[in-house]
């Protein structure tokens, strides 16, 4: 058993060590830890006494955001069809090694404990960021972490338990859906009560739902909210009762889990291999699973000579995977359009454009582009590095340009915007699209194979700041020169739009050397 | 010709170099072998030669610095683990390399190698649908498609069946006779025993012995390898 503890510890140590394998990666890791750590510390430093009458609504909204995240995670875990207890290396050691069934179960449970803790911390972070009134104290953080961990740990273990039984008999898989359905129905029922109470006014109903006592009857998530609300209001008996209920459920689950004795090794190892292979392919694809699993269309394509072949190759792959315009992207845009239409009648077009900016952030974690930048073939092609880089990123940018242009023009015409406004927001989004691509390239240039989505996003934000600096400086100078704030603001916005393109282009030119292949 | 002068490669400044001051030459019309146990630095040397790694030292291929376009046009590289575009078919992959290298009349060469590697029936398959051995063969085909003056092969026989190994060995001899410089990294000595002209034995990042065919006397390459690596260990 001690070897399993050693394995867990060594794996954790290895993960940390890997982040510090290169100076750049180590510095970025330290920077990220300091950045997020400082954000949390700021929340603690500014903490003040909780006042239900003035802070109640915000506190409940923050609480629901953390609990909502946990619920979303629970649904993802329960409904995920691609399941395994552990990854393939662990599976081989565990099921072939000299361990009893209880020891194996204990090890798997340990993984769920750690995973629950990580997601619990994430939930706390989300809540801390939403706690604008400054009531998020260290004790509140600790009790939140405990409560969220108890909820998440229960569902992680339950999902594994159902999975193990499903290996004995596939019919047990239905319990995943039953559990998820029960929670959806109960939550919907509470929401219906709130909506009914407010005469089906959706906005008021939503606020009532957040504050309602009925929500506390929803098992686990309701108990968690009950305990945390009570802690804020310094009523410690409900804190004990809520936490006690969660703890009791967890203990019961642990007992059931550790007592599972059926022989499931063969299928468990096969599933572990399949899931590990899937994860490896997703990673190799730059964080996108779609092209790994999606049905491939049999379309034909031709290639021109030289570096342009890279561009046509990527277009061909996009056509095969249908990755140029994906259904989920279209759905998101339709949802954004509907939200902007309902929520902000005075500024629908502007809201839609800013929501598209968020969508761009995710869309440009582009599988083909990252796949290309991590494949040695492109580095060996005897063409100029800048041509290869430009042709490699061009398909991703064209994809963005087409989708953004069509969406913005449609939203602009639909909302009867003037031509200049449509043009201004179109240029803004295209500029940000270019920054996001430049961020991806810079991330691969700096971290090579260790490049990750978090670093890409950080670099993108830094580039946005870098683009704003020259415009702000010139804006300030304009203000002193013309003594007119409006003129200065126009200058700032116009120059920022231009700088988005200029700085992105400079970054891409500066990164061209990577296409010679050094340090892939 | 592949010329390597004072090649040193550090993966981490905190660790000792993976390759330490290595110099050697793989001549035209010769098969040069890099031999060594696991972790000796063979793959690092090959990856440095094809410019996929940062390194210190000087490397020239066919008289040009390895990062130049002229050098890139003249060498073919077969990595230990093939990296292919999974969603391109065999045919598309061949066309992609042919066009991106601006090759003229590569179709005939492709047909010849498709036949040789028994890939003709697989040409409409996606790369991800190929078996491990087929992927290795396709990777080799792509390197040969450009009709390289220098060929660098990292563990060429991994995943190949006996018939393919035999075909590849004959091919290497044919290419050598046509004047190609061939540099092969391997730790499976038996496979290259019949074809090598010059061998460099590597250990712990250094070349510890250089042997030319005819100098081995009554000993086999395998015996020399074990003696050398055992001496170095001691």
From TrEMBL, chain A:
<feature type="transmembrane region" description="Helical">
    <location>
        <begin position="324"/>
        <end position="343"/>
    </location>
</feature>
<protein>
    <recommendedName>
        <fullName>ABC exporter</fullName>
    </recommendedName>
</protein>
<feature type="transmembrane region" description="Helical">
    <location>
        <begin position="138"/>
        <end position="163"/>
    </location>
</feature>
<feature type="transmembrane region" description="Helical">
    <location>
        <begin position="488"/>
        <end position="511"/>
    </location>
</feature>
<feature type="transmembrane region" description="Helical">
    <location>
        <begin position="20"/>
        <end position="45"/>
    </location>
</feature>
<feature type="transmembrane region" description="Helical">
    <location>
        <begin position="389"/>
        <end position="413"/>
    </location>
</feature>
<feature type="transmembrane region" description="Helical">
    <location>
        <begin position="236"/>
        <end position="258"/>
    </location>
</feature>
<feature type="transmembrane region" description="Helical">
    <location>
        <begin position="57"/>
        <end position="79"/>
    </location>
</feature>
<dbReference type="Pfam" id="PF16962">
    <property type="entry name" value="ABC_export"/>
</dbReference>
<keyword id="KW-0812">Transmembrane</keyword>
<keyword id="KW-1133">Transmembrane helix</keyword>
<feature type="transmembrane region" description="Helical">
    <location>
        <begin position="116"/>
        <end position="132"/>
    </location>
</feature>
<feature type="transmembrane region" description="Helical">
    <location>
        <begin position="175"/>
        <end position="195"/>
    </location>
</feature>
<dbReference type="InterPro" id="IPR031584">
    <property type="entry name" value="Put_ABC_export"/>
</dbReference>
<feature type="transmembrane region" description="Helical">
    <location>
        <begin position="459"/>
        <end position="482"/>
    </location>
</feature>
<feature type="transmembrane region" description="Helical">
    <location>
        <begin position="425"/>
        <end position="447"/>
    </location>
</feature>
<keyword id="KW-0472">Membrane</keyword>
From TrEMBL, chain B:
<dbReference type="InterPro" id="IPR003593">
    <property type="entry name" value="AAA+_ATPase"/>
</dbReference>
<keyword id="KW-0547">Nucleotide-binding</keyword>
<dbReference type="InterPro" id="IPR027417">
    <property type="entry name" value="P-loop_NTPase"/>
</dbReference>
<dbReference type="InterPro" id="IPR017871">
    <property type="entry name" value="ABC_transporter-like_CS"/>
</dbReference>
<keyword id="KW-0067">ATP-binding</keyword>
<dbReference type="Pfam" id="PF00005">
    <property type="entry name" value="ABC_tran"/>
</dbReference>
<dbReference type="InterPro" id="IPR003439">
    <property type="entry name" value="ABC_transporter-like_ATP-bd"/>
</dbReference>
<feature type="domain" description="ABC transporter">
    <location>
        <begin position="2"/>
        <end position="229"/>
    </location>
</feature>
<dbReference type="InterPro" id="IPR051782">
    <property type="entry name" value="ABC_Transporter_VariousFunc"/>
</dbReference>
<dbReference type="GO" id="GO:0005524">
    <property type="term" value="F:ATP binding"/>
</dbReference>
<keyword id="KW-0813">Transport</keyword>
<protein>
    <submittedName>
        <fullName>ABC transporter ATP-binding protein</fullName>
    </submittedName>
</protein>
């Amino acid at each position: 058993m001690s070897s399993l503890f050693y394995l867990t510890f060594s794996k954790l140590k290895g993960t940390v060590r890997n982040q510090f394998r290169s100076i750049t990666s180590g510095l970025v890791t330290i920077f990220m830890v300091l950045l997020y750590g400082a954000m949390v510390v700021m929340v603690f430093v500014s903490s003040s006494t909780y006042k239900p009458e003035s802070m109640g609504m915000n506190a409940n909204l923050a609480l629901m955001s953390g609990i909502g995240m946990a619920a979303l995670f629970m649904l993802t875990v329960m409904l995920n069809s691609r399941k395994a207890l552990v990854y393939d290396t662990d599976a081989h050691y565990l099921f072939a090694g000299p361990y009893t069934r209880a020891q194996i179960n204990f090890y798997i449970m340990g993984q769920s404990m750690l995973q629950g803790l990580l997601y619990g911390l994430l939930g706390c972070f989300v809540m801390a960021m939403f706690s604008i009134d400054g009531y998020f104290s260290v004790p509140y953080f600790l009790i939140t972490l405990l409560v969220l961990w108890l909820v998440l740990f229960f569902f992680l273990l339950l999902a594994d338990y159902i999975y193990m039984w499903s290996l004995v008999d596939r019919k047990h898989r239905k319990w995943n859906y039953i559990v998820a359905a029960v929670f959806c129905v109960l939550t919907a029922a509470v929401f219906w009560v709130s909506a009914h109470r407010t005469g089906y006014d959706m906005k008021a109903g939503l606020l009532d739902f957040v504050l309602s006592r009925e929500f506390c009857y929803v098992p686990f998530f309701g108990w968690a909210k009950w305990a945390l609300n009570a802690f804020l209001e310094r009523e410690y008996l409900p804190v004990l009762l809520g936490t006690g209920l969660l703890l009791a459920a967890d203990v019961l689950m642990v007992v059931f889990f550790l007592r599972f004795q059926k022989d499931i090794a063969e299928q468990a190892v096969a599933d572990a291999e399949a899931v590990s292979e899937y994860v490896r392919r997703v990673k190799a694809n730059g964080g996108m699973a779609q092209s790994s699993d999606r049905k491939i269309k049999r379309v034909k394509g031709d290639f021109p000579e030289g570096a342009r072949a890279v561009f046509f190759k990527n277009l061909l792959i996009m056509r095969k995977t249908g990755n140029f315009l994906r259904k989920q992207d279209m759905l998101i845009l339709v949802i954004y359009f509907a939200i902007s239409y309902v929520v902000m009648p005075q500024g629908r077009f502007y809201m839609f454009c800013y929501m598209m900016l968020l969508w761009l952030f995710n869309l440009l974690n582009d599988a083909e582009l990252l796949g290309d930048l991590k494949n040695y073939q492109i580095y060996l092609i005897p063409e100029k590095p800048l041509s290869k880089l430009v042709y490699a990123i061009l398909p991703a940018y064209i994809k963005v340009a087409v989708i953004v242009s069509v969406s913005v023009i449609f939203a602009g015409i639909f909302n009867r915007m003037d031509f200049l406004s449509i043009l201004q927001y179109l240029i803004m989004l295209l500029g940000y699209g270019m920054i996001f691509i430049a961020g991806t390239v810079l991330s691969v240039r700096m971290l090579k194979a260790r490049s990750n989505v978090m670093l890409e996003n950080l670099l993108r934000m830094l580039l946005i700041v870098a683009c704003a600096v020259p415009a702000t400086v010139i804006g300030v100078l304009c203000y002193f020169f013309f003594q007119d704030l409006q003129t200065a603001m126009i200058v700032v916005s116009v120059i920022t739009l231009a700088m988005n393109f200029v700085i992105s282009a400079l970054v891409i030119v500066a990164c061209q050397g990577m296409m010679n292949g050094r340090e892939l | 010709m592949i010329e390597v002068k004072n090649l040193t490669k550090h993966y981490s400044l905190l660790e000792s170099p993976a390759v330490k001051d290595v110099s050697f030459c793989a001549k035209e019309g010769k098969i040069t072998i890099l031999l060594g146990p696991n972790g000796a630095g063979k793959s690092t040397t090959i990856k440095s030669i094809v410019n996929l790694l940062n390194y210190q030292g000087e490397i020239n291929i066919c008289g040009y610095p390895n990062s130049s376009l002229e050098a890139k046009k003249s060498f073919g590289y077969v990595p230990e683990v093939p990296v292919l575009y999974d969603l391109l078919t065999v045919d598309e992959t061949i066309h992609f390399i042919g066009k991106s290298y601006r090759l003229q009349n590569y179709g005939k060469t492709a047909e010849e190698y498709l036949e040789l590697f028994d890939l003709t029936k697989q040409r409409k398959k996606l790369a991800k649908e190929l078996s491990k051995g087929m992927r290795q063969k396709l990777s080799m085909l792509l390197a040969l498609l450009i009709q390289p003056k220098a060929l660098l092969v990292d563990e060429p026989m991994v995943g190949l069946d006996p018939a393919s190994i035999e075909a590849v060995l004959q091919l290497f001899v044919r290419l050598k006779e046509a004047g190609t410089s061939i540099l092969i990294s391997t730790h499976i000595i038996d496979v290259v025993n019949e074809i090598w002209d010059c061998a460099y034995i590597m250990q712990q990042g250094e070349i510890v012995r250089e042997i030319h065919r005819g100098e081995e006397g009554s000993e086999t390459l395998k015996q020399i390898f074990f003696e050398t690596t055992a001496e170095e260990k001691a």
